């Protein structure tokens, strides 16, 4: 398989713009250095490094603590940076009060008032730099994919030149993607960007994402590392994680690079989000573009997959740390 290119990689700030998240290894990676200014500085370092590496897609969300604020500050300090594309999301509110031990860190709300409030906040911080706005974790259960009032309000952003889309999570990702592809406002497809989980342990959204790409929509892959399960040191004791680590060893490729390279072999994957907490992790992740996977690797990757219900049950049980 051929070498990929850096233009398909993006940087996500979910793990560095709030003190707690569900990725593995945060105690070792961050320790107690989780104050607002400490994470602001860490975010700036990552943005500087990502830009130097050639990454030009940046992902934030209203619920990622101060991600939009940190990114807006970095952009203000770098007026020469005019070639990045920014995607954000509405639909969750961060309520963790900057505490690792908060009882609740975020609350989902896909109502029209939530969109009205959060889109105004995103635009206030990012202005005309905002290029894509996703419904955060749109599911069939919340009703947002059938809410014509929300659709009509979101279409107002489309008229401002902002691409609209959804991010997806959960075992019913394929159904949510296909439902969103059918949503139209004034005869035009409303959702033309899909940010979904796909990785070697949870590939079930692949066919639906291929359909989205065939329709002309953008596809952005998140959680390529399965929240740390597909990263060095992230073995959670499951058979799938052990098998992935064994495959990486046989290929003599670091596990994080194998995880990214596996996504890059998908022709429908427009961008693959990286979510490092430090520049060394970023450099290792970026090196995945140099990985050339052997022909026939898809059979071995397919063998790593867990049933979707099992994967998402495991993910929902991960602690915030």
Summarize the structure.
This protein is α/β, with parallel strands linked by helices and 321 residues long. It is built from twelve helices and twelve strands.
Please give a handful of descriptors for the protein shown.
321 residues, alpha/beta, TIM Barrel, eight-stranded parallel β-barrel, two-stranded antiparallel sheet, 12 helices, 39% helix, globular
What does the model show?
The protein is of the alpha/beta class and 321 residues long. The protein has a single domain (6-316), classed as NADP-dependent oxidoreductase domain (TIM Barrel, Alpha-Beta Barrel). 39% of the residues lie in helices and 15% in strands. It has helices spanning 26-30, 36-53, 67-77, 112-126, 148-158, 173-181, 206-214, 239-251, 255-264, 279-286, 297-302, 308-316, and strands at 9-12, 57-59, 85-90, 92-94, 106-108, 130-135, 163-168, 184-185, 188-189, 193-197, 218-222, 271-274. The strands form three sheets. The protein has an eight-stranded parallel beta barrel, surrounded by six helices. The longest helix is centred in the first third of the chain and has 18 residues, at 36-53.
**Using only CA atoms, what is the Rg?**
19 Å
Amino- and carboxy-terminal Cα gap: 37 Å
The total strand number stands at: 12
What structural class do helix, strand and pairing data support?
alpha/beta
State the domain count: 1
Instruction: Look at the structure and give the CATH class.
Output: Alpha Beta
Mean pLDDT: 96
Helix content: 25-40%
Query: Spatial order of the strands in the main sheet?
Result: 1-2-3-6-7-10-11-12
What's the architecture in CATH terms? Alpha-Beta Barrel
Q: Low-confidence parts lasting 5 or more residues at pLDDT below 50?
A: none
Beta content comes to 15-25%
Number of helices: 12
CATH topology: TIM Barrel
Sheet of most strands: 8 strands, parallel, barrel
Find the CATH superfamily. Answer: NADP-dependent oxidoreductase domain
SSE order, one letter for each helix or strand: EHHEHEEEHEHEHEEEHEHHEHHH
Question: What shape does the CA trace take?
Answer: globular
């Amino acid at each position: 398989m051929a070498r990929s290119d850096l233009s398909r990689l993006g940087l996500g700030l979910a793990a560095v713009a709030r003190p707690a998240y569900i990725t593995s290894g945060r105690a070792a990676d961050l320790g107690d250095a989780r104050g607002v200014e400490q994470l602001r500085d860490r975010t700036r370092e990552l943005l500087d490094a990502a830009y130097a590496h050639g990454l030009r897609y940046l992902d934030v969300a209203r619920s990622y603590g101060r991600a939009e604020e940190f990114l807006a500050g970095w952009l203000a300090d770098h007026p020469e940076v005019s070639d990045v594309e920014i995607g954000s999301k509405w639909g969750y509110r961060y309520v963790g009060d900057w505490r690792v031990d908060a009882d609740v860190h975020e609350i989902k709300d896909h109502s029209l008032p939530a969109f009205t409030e959060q889109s105004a906040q995103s635009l206030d911080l990012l202005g005309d730099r905002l290029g894509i706005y996703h419904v955060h974790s749109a599911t069939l259960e919340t009703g947002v994919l059938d809410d014509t009032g929300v659709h009509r309000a979101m279409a107002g952003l489309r008229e401002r030149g902002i691409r609209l889309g959804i991010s997806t999570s959960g075992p019913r990702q394929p159904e949510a993607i296909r439902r969103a592809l059918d949503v139209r406002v004034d005869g035009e497809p409303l959702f033309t960007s899909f940010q979904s989980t796909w990785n070697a342990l949870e590939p079930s959204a692949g066919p639906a994402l291929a359909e989205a790409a065939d329709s002309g929509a953008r596809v952005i892959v998140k959680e390529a590392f399965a929240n740390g399960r597909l990263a060095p040191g992230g073995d959670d004791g499951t058979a799938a994680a052990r098998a992935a680590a064994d495959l990486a060893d046989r290929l003599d490729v670091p596990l994080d690079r194998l995880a990214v390279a596996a996504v890059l072999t998908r022709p429908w994957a427009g961008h693959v989000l990286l979510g490092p907490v430090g520049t060394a992790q970023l450099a290792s992740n970026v090196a995945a573009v140099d990985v050339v996977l052997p022909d026939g690797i898809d059979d071995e990757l397919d063998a790593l997959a867990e049933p979707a219900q099992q994967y998402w049950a495991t993910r929902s049980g991960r602690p915030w740390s």
